[in-house]
Amino acid sequence: MAKMIDEKPSFKGEGKVWDKLNEYLPSDMVVYNQREINGREYDFCVMAENLGIVVIEVKEWLAEKIIVNGVDNIDVEGYERPQTSPKKQARVYRFAILNKISEKYNVSPLVLDMVCYPFISKAEYESSRLDIISEEQYTIFKEDLEDRERLNNKIINVFQVNSVIPHSDFSYDLMFRIRRSLEPDIKENVEDGKVLPYSKLYIIPDMPNITEVEEMIDIYFMGVKSIIFVEDGACYKNIIRCLNDGLRKRNVDYKKK
């Protein structure tokens, strides 16, 4: 079961998607829903450890109630005006999330977007011409929500197809740091049953030990603050050099302000 952070939506279609993400996705995936980004609210955001993030826009449409006249011209019964592309909506949220992560953490993990029609089958998607809105591999159909393997494969495949895009690793450490900004109740980090401290003190009299440097970098990405005492200016420069080299290996580049 996935980690569902927010309450189940009251809308029927979004509630169905919430239930299936909760039931079928693995425990290392974290799901947010109805969160605001740049003044607009996305439907679902799935964080997948070691893969990335995918935003899912849900449309509770029925095939017999829609007429697709164009990508941004979709007549939906019950709406006064034609609806625009749900894939484009998801794409806006995608880049808003990516930009915020890049600005705050100076990294660019893989952030993708999908569309979900909880009440439309693949055959109906094709016959109603929703295929011009989003490609099949980026679209979750009614039957995908009814099968654990299909749903997981659909989401994982999107990450695999886009893995050629240059991106930073979406490690547990980075994922946890982002979660801390979204979940105020997370007050401590637990890994393998061990609670990590808020800060750690290092006293380094001469050349830094490579093991210590790696530890500093690892716990930095887990949200642990490092306090370092050094003997002199030469030792300080060595520490900075080693830390910068280690951070660059994780696609993080230090910038002076």
How would you describe the overall organization of this protein?
- The longest helix is centred in the middle third of the chain and has 20 residues, at 86-105.
- α1 crosses α4 (148-161), α5 packs parallel to α6 and α6 (210-221) packs across α7.
- The chain is elongated.
- The two termini are 43 Å apart.
- The strands form five sheets. The protein has a six-stranded mixed beta sheet.
- The model is unreliable at 189-194 (pLDDT under 50).
- Helices cover 36% and strands 22% of the residues.
- It has helices spanning 12-24, 86-105, 122-127, 148-161, 172-182, 210-221, 233-249, and strands spanning 3-4, 29-33, 36-37, 40-41, 44-48, 52-58, 66-70, 73-76, 111-116, 139-140, 190-191, 194-195, 199-204, 225-230.
- It is an alpha/beta fold and 257 residues long.
